[in-house]
TrEMBL record:
This is Magnesium transporter CorA. The chain crosses the membrane at residues 275-293, 305-325. GO terms for cellular component: plasma membrane. InterPro entries: CorA_cytoplasmic_dom, CorA_TM1_TM2, MgTranspt_CorA/ZnTranspt_ZntB. It is a multi-pass membrane protein. SUPFAM superfamilies: CorA soluble domain-like, Magnesium transport protein CorA, transmembrane region. Its main location: membrane.
């Protein structure tokens, strides 16, 4: 029987014999299309309700645990295999250029031999970019679901790679700040912690993708045919590069932070040497005037203007030293 109308359907596609035959067909026709063994269907749901997913699960024979994972956010990137289908979770990412904060968009995917169903809880995942990749490679469409999944994973991994590159540039800026003449310690600490947090989030998203893509390439899954295997190998290589780059950047941020602390310690030692030198210079006339000041008359002694002159001189000299130390960032 045909499923009830799904209000959350964003888009549908039908491929037959590797050729796109329909784009945006009614979801009620899915069952009819799937009766043809040469047909491959894509169904995209954005913000589906539990009732809608339950109807879809009944229609396609989806496992209840996979449906439950699709409804609940913050799943670990993974690939689960069930009797009639597989279930995949992945994340696309994007880095804010100003703050260096990483934003993630979760996507749940149901895979059968003839259908690929994508489920999103919101519209943060750029599905239009995935569709554009499919349209750019029509010669791969004969591989069916493997072709559709490749375009999706290729987009996801590319967002990981772009995020790593952007984070690398932010870290280079942080390195320049470390060796600046007058660095802002508070700003550096904020940026270092923000970048480290983004790298931790990216690591949680990128590292499990190695297991996902590697498992998909195994022949027992039956999703990737021999024609698509080199393309999945290329995606796997990008996953490895992104994960290794993420690990190295995380270590680099830690090293930068340690370098900053060492530089601050060295600057503090230098400042203490300079202040000690000033104190030694000032101590000599202070000791002399302190010893003789009450025994030898001086200009203005026992006069009000003498008192105010000496007080003003003390205030000006003290203020001048304070301004000098502050300008050189010693205080």
């Amino acid at each position: 029987m045909a499923p009830a109308r799904l209000a959350s359907v964003v888009r549908t596609r039908l491929y037959r014999h590797g050729v796109l035959e329909a784009d945006g067909f009614p979801p009620e026709d899915i069952s009819e299309h799937l009766r043809d063994p040469d047909a491959v269907v894509w169904l995209d749901l954005c913000g589906p309700s539990p009732v809608e997913l339950a109807m879809l699960a009944e229609e396609l024979g989806l496992h209840e645990l996979a449906v439950e994972d699709a409804l609940h956010e913050r799943q670990r990137p993974k690939l689960d295999r069930y009797e009639t289908h597989s279930f995949l979770t992945a994340y696309s990412v994007g880095l804010d250029g100003g703050s260096g904060k990483l934003a993630t968009a979760e996507l749940a995917v149901f895979l059968t031999h003839q259908a690929l169903v994508t489920v999103r809880n919101d519209d943060r995942f750029d599905m239009a970019a995935v569709v554009a990749r499919w349209d750019e490679s029509p010669h791969l469409a004969k591989s069916g679901v493997g072709f559709l999944l490749h375009g999706l994973l290729d987009h996801v991994v590319d967002t990981h790679f772009e995020a790593v590159q952007d984070l690398d540039e932010h870290i280079e800026d942080l390195e320049d700040m470390v060796f600046a003449e007058r660095p802002s310690s508070a700003d550096m600490q904020r940026r270092a912690l923000s970048l480290r947090k983004s790298l931790v989030t990216l690591r949680r998203v990128v590292l499990p993708m190695r297991e996902v893509v590697n498992a998909l390439m195994r022949t027992d899954h039956g999703i990737v045919d021999e024609f698509m295997r080199p393309y999945y190998q290329d995606v796997y290589d990008h996953v490895l590069r992104a994960s290794e780059w993420t690990e190295s950047l995380r270590d680099l941020v830690t090293t930068i932070r340690e370098t900053q602390l060492n530089i601050q310690s060295n600057r503090l030692n230098l400042i203490m040497k300079k202040v000690t030198g000033w104190a030694a210079i000032i101590a000599v006339p202070t000791a002399v005037t302190g010893f003789y000041g009450q025994n030898v008359p001086y200009p203005g002694s026992e006069q009000p203007w003498g008192f105010w002159t000496s007080t003003t001189a003390i205030a000006l000299l003290s203020g001048g030293l304070y301004a000098l130390f502050k300008r050189r960032d010693w205080l």
